[in-house]
């Protein structure tokens, strides 16, 4: 009998479902359902109601299964990828108390700073968890609720992350897994346990509101309840794998399950992450010391502005993706001195939640739409490369950069990335990295539940395919130019307004 697995990627803008053939890994159908942020919130606040995610998940699963034409009996498992760091507060009845504050919410920066100070400074925090506490992490969001909405906080019974909530919606069980939990700010990635000192710094009673962390990411989160199965048109008891954060599932979906492979995900935000068989801690706190969703570790950097920047540019100029690419391709590397710090939503690496964007070096030669397009793409790439260089400093040795996400489909951007990274860049045969990772993890979990002895690396090596037509190799002259510009980027990104002025002659 045929076996199929459903992968879900619940993101900031939409939820996507894929149906994967369990025999050959082929994606036989996809579907997506969009939603938006809650409007009218104060500056820095980014929120969504979890009911938007559950509705979109059900719609996308229904549509994908209908397209695939597969029977309920042939669907053996579901795996969920979710946006990381969001805070879903549940009351005693398991109901959502208020909309979730998301990863891109920077309104909790003061709470993050106060937690770090209370715990004895950044170095002390890193020694406790392996990570700092940037505003994007969950910890500051919980403290924000406690300080700003005490009545809602008094109702708080359970803390969940977005993908945990979707698992709960499907299985009725409350749990977390180590990969996603390691992005909360109060989880020790080295020991895979909650860090009680950090938890208590938020609230001495918070520990009792945290669900148990699964002993292994290979174990299922549960099975479909009768109610959930009926809503999805599937069978009760269908396996739901542990799932994970979008980066952890993206790692599985891009075959980033062994040393030497690096994934660069180009979505609303940008992430670069690599497989590691040991925990890697950055004393500066810029490289996240995450667990992955396979039992290993996933050192990672995240920038908050990737397609954020290009979408704003396209909207301002009335362009589509092809027009953006054509204009950028007309301009040489370095954009004739025009430079963009794309901090439209603040920034996380470097940790600059209050930073704003800056076009630097405008003159009569480069004051064109094409130069702005090129500078935008280059600025985003250099922001990512700042993080990649930090990862190299910590001992990671990438052999290949696999790009995924919407930005990975742009050949001009791939070449810019290859030149900035000074490394081979290639896309996957499928663009559904995180959703595909969910389906692959579901297959792994299902196989283990049936007594099969299989490692996730065996599955990803067999099923994850690269697209050789997308390979971009660095051009030496461009790579040299970008190395010089990278130093300027690193300095400028940390500078204040006075320093910006002092660098006016550098371009």
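^ structure tokens above, recovered residues below v
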């Amino acid at each position: 009998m045929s076996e199929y697995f459903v992968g879900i990627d619940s993101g900031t803008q939409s939820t996507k479902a894929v149906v994967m053939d369990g025999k050959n890994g082929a994606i036989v159908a996809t579907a997506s359902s969009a939603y938006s942020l809650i409007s009218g919130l104060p500056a820095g606040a980014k929120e969504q109601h979890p009911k938007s995610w559950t509705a979109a998940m059900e719609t996308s699963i229904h549509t994908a299964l209908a397209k695939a034409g597969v029977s309920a009996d042939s669907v053996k498992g579901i795996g969920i990828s979710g946006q990381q760091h969001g805070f879903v507060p549940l009351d005693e009845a398991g109901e959502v108390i208020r909309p979730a504050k998301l990863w891109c919410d920077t309104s909790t920066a003061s709470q993050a700073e106060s937690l770090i100070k209370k715990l004895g400074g950044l170095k002390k925090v890193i020694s406790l968890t392996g990570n700092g506490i940037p505003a994007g992490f969950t910890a500051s969001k919980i403290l924000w609720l406690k300080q700003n909405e005490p009545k809602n906080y008094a109702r708080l019974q359970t803390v969940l992350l977005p993908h945990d909530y979707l698992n709960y919606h499907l299985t009725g069980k409350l749990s977390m897994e180590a990969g996603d939990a390691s992005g909360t700010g109060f989880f020790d990635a080295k020991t895979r346990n909650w860090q009680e000192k950090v938890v208590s710094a938020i609230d001495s009673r918070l520990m009792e509101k945290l669900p148990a962390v699964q002993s292994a990411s290979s174990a299922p989160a549960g099975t479909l309840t009768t109610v959930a199965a009926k809503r999805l048109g599937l069978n009760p008891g269908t396996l739901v794998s542990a799932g994970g954060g979008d980066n952890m599932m993206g790692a599985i979906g891009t075959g980033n399950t062994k040393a030497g492979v690096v994934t660069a995900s180009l979505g609303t935000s940008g992430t670069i992450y690599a497989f590691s068989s040991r925990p890697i801690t950055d004393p500066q706190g810029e490289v996240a010391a995450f667990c992955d969703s396979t039992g290993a570790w996933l050192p990672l950097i995240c920038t908050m502005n990737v397609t954020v920047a290009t979408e704003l540019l396209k909207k301002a100029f009335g362009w589509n993706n092809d027009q953006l690419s054509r204009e950028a391709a007309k301009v040489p590397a370095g954009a004739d001195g025009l430079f963009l710090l794309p901090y439209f939503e603040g920034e996380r690496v470097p940790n600059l939640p209050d930073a704003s964007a800056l076009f630097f070096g405008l003159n009569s030669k480069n004051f064109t739409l094409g130069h702005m397009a090129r500078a935008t793409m280059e600025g985003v790439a250099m922001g990512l490369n700042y993080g990649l260089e930090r990862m190299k400093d910590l001992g990671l040795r990438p052999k290949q950069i696999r790009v995924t996400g919407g930005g990975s489909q742009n050949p001009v951007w791939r070449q810019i990335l290859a030149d900035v990274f000074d490394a081979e860049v290639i896309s996957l045969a499928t663009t559904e990295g995180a959703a595909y990772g969910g389906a692959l993890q579901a297959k792994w979990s299902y196989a283990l539940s049936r007594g099969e002895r299989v490692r996730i690396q065996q599955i990803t090596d067999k099923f994850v395919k690269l697209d050789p037509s997308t390979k971009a190799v660095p051009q030496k002259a461009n790579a040299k130019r970008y190395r010089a510009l990278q130093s300027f980027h690193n300095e400028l990104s940390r500078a204040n307004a006075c320093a910006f002025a002092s660098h006016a002659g550098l371009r």
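The two ends are 63 Å apart (CA to CA).
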